[in-house]
Specification:
The chain is α/β, with parallel strands linked by helices and about 350 residues long. It has ten helices and 15 strands. A hairpin with a 6-residue loop joins β14 and β15.
């Protein structure tokens, strides 16, 4: 049996429509190439299997990770598609049992040995530890901002009074209402194309992550990218998380793969934002925005907690000198905890549904 593969050029990216393979073809796969498995794929010498959700966005961003791994290790890398609870349920995300609805099935596949790494949108990761699994790498972060996709290229300021805007995020809903209380905010689900299609039917605009639109080549649908000050994004938005089994993280091939993927600044920012979220014990129903940044030798974290209707908000900021210690996660973790402690001391728990982390 044969499998069609492609070998990415250095620095190239892919739309995610890579070729297919199956477990019996593992021995024939080309070193340094990437493919997509149609079903379960057995472990094999010279093969690394990367678990991913099956959405167009997930496959596109995981394919880029797979290409980087293949280039760094010379291994054949295969995408293994895993269906998660969040992919099959149409319920609002805030009602699906907290964070982790897009993550747990991938983690189960990783622990069971059905894949060797798993790629997630980092904002989907629960903040607590997972037995046997570690965060191996955070690649270079994409644009973390939220994006408005409106009819006729409109901006938030130019949307008509009472315009209908769709989002599945309580944070985005609160931020929209804080800036435009007249808007009618609708809860929506579905993939990117499904959401964008509603702009031409029953909605005037939708709000999506800029990074996701850029990754699938739909940046042209964006009519406005919100500023990080006016609309701080979800903690970890725009970043990817690459998880591996704890027992494998120090193996020679895996160490090479993770070193090629990890961006120290992106990781420090993500760890700080996740520590904030974990300290607040905030789940996906909590409207919290956060932005960490490293600039001019300063490591800064700012976070805002909103009342669900957008009528009130609290912001806290802290900064420390950027040091090499950021690479061990301790300093970013402490920065996140510091900002969270200030928010709690000032009454954040009276504004937002905290204590809901998973």
């Amino acid at each position: 049996m044969t499998a069609t593969t492609h070998t990415p050029a250095s620095g190239s990216s892919s739309s995610g429509s890579s070729a297919t393979a199956d477990s019996s073809a593992a021995g024939t796969l080309t070193p340094g190439s990437v493919s997509r498995a149609d079903g379960p794929l057995a472990a094999a010498s010279g093969l690394l299997r990367v678990g991913t959700r099956g959405s167009a966005l997930a496959v596109a961003q995981t394919t880029r990770v797979a290409e980087a791994i293949a280039a760094a290790t010379g291994m054949h890398v295969a995408l293994v598609i895993v269906t998660t609870h969040g992919d099959v349920s149409r319920a609002p995300l805030a009602q699906l049992g907290g964070t982790g609805v897009f993550v747990s099935a991938l983690r189960e596949a990783l622990v069971a040995g059905e894949c060797d790494l798993a790629v997630h949108s980092l904002k989907d990761l629960p903040t607590g530890p997972c037995d046997g699994i570690v965060l191996g790498a955070v690649p270079l972060r994409a644009d973390p901002r939220d994006a408005l996709c409106a009819r006729d290229g409109g901006t938030l300021a130019t949307l008509p009074h009472g315009a209908r805007v769709g989002t599945g995020s309580p944070r985005r809903a609160a931020q929209l209402l804080a800036r435009r209380p007249d808007l009618l905010v609708s809860d929506i689900r579905g993939n990117v194309d499904t959401r964008l299609a509603r702009v031409h039917s029953d909605l005037d605009a939708v709000v999506l992550a800029a990074a996701g639109l850029d990754r699938i080549g739909r940046g042209d649908a964006i009519s406005e990218r919100f500023s990080l000050v006016d609309a701080p994004p979800a903690p970890g938005q725009g970043a990817l998380a690459v998880e591996v089994r704890e027992a494998d993280v120090s193996t020679e091939v895996m160490a090479r793969a993770l070193a090629a993927l990890n961006d120290p600044t992106a990781r420090a920012e993500a760890i700080a934002e996740r520590a904030l979220l974990g300290t607040l014990e905030a789940g996906c129903a909590a409207p919290i925005g956060a932005t960490a940044s490293v600039s001019d030798g300063i490591f800064r974290l700012s976070a805002t907690v909103y009342r669900l209707d957008g009528s009130e908000q609290l912001t806290a900021t802290a900064e420390v000198p950027a040091t090499p210690n950021m690479s061990d996660d301790a300093e970013p973790t402490q920065l996140g905890r510091t900002v969270a402690a200030e928010l709690l001391a000032r009454g954040a728990a009276q504004l937002a549904p905290l204590g809901a982390a998973r």
